[in-house]
TrEMBL record:
Keywords: DNA-binding. GO terms for molecular function: DNA binding; DNA-binding transcription factor activity. This is MerR family transcriptional regulator. The keyword DNA-binding applies. Residues 1-69 form the HTH merR-type domain. PROSITE patterns: HTH_MERR_1, HTH_MERR_2. It comes from Streptomyces roseus. The keyword Mitochondrion does not apply. Pfam families: HEAT_2, MerR_1.
Amino acid sequence: MLIGEVARRSGVSARMLRHYESLGLVSPTGRTGSGYREYSGEDIRRIFHIESLRSLGLSLRDVARALDDPAFRPSELVEELIRTTQERITAETALLTRLRRIGAAEPDGWEEVLHTVALLHALGSDSPGRRQRAALASADTAPLPVEALVEAALGETDPNVAGALRWAVARSGDGALELLAGGLASAAAEVRERAVRTIAEIPGDGSTALLRTALNGPDAAVRGQAALALGARGVADAIPALVDMIVEGRNDVEAADALSGLASRPALAERIAGKLAARLPGGSAAPPVRLRLTQALADIPGATARRALTDLARDEDPAVALTAAYVLTLRGAG
């Protein structure tokens, strides 16, 4: 078969076939009487083998080794191809994500494009200061796509940067809530906690609904953050979790403040006092727990809280008894 016909049947150009011949990859078995290259069936099979290996990403040098080196180990080359392909996919995916985020920012001109690119780079910087400045800039003058802000907020470990990112996300609108809901479902506990902290910064019914979901989650830290936020919003469902926080000594001061705010509603004051008093019976709670409950009861109005404090004023632990007696004195003075 002459070179022109081989080119038509194989899809490999005559020029490339000559290039293969110059490299020693394939040589026509014979020549015609006129001196034209003539390829045998075996030559054509080798051409197809070359093209198949090239389609996997092999260089021509590796193709030659694969076809001619008896010691060649394809498994090693395949592993290397997998690694380099994965690196390329990762890089291309990162580029695609960056382009989509730039498009989502709807820039009006190249200056805005370049500014958005600079902020996106800054969000991924190793410098906490640069990340914080990027978050603040996004919130103030150059809004970044909400996907980029949420991703940064869920991954941020520096507390100062995290605060700036939560603020920026809160200013980006309700579009963040769906993404943050995904953060609440993350397999990583630290991501779930960052998600609930960020949700707490966003006002509105949508964020309240997500906080209610977090209130029933498996993590004490997530439940606690959700309870504090819901308590500040006047949601009574947070009361049991807030009482648990006081008993367990987790952000107990903040939890007591949240309960005090809820107790400003008379309908809730007796309920809250009853929940706190229910954790005291028989002195079974350890003295530090009784002291925290006493301090929490101090800011709860009503008869139930007063009765509990009166019992605590006779507590066997001096610190508990003195604290309860002092609170009762203040109530009497009021």
